[in-house]
C-alpha cells in the first residue's frame, strides 16, 4: 500500500510531462502539413 504513495505521483508526473511535450509539439506547428508530407515519401519498388 505504501508503494502507491510513490507510484501514483510518479505516474501523474509522467503523464504531465507527456502532455507537455504534446502541447509543445502542437504549438510548434509540427503537425500542420502531414497530408502534404505523406505524398513526398518514397514509394517501395520491388
UniProtKB/TrEMBL annotation:
* Domain of life, per lineage: Bacteria
The taxonomic lineage of its organism, from the top, reads: Bacteria, Pseudomonadati, Pseudomonadota, Gammaproteobacteria, Nevskiales
Q: Which InterPro entries match?
A: Cyt_oxidase_maturation_cbb3 (IPR004714)
Could you list the residue ranges that cross the membrane? 6-26
Q: Name one Pfam family in it.
A: FixS
Q: What is this protein called?
A: Cytochrome oxidase maturation protein cbb3-type
Question: Keyword set for this entry?
Answer: Membrane, Transmembrane, Transmembrane helix
Amino acid at each position: 500500500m505504501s508503494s502507491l504513495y510513490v507510484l501514483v505521483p510518479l505516474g501523474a508526473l509522467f503523464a504531465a510531462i507527456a502532455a507537455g511535450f504534446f502541447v509543445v509539439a502542437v504549438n510548434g506547428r509540427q503537425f500542420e502539413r502531414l497530408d502534404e508530407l505523406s505524398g513526398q515519401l518514397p514509394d517501395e519498388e520491388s
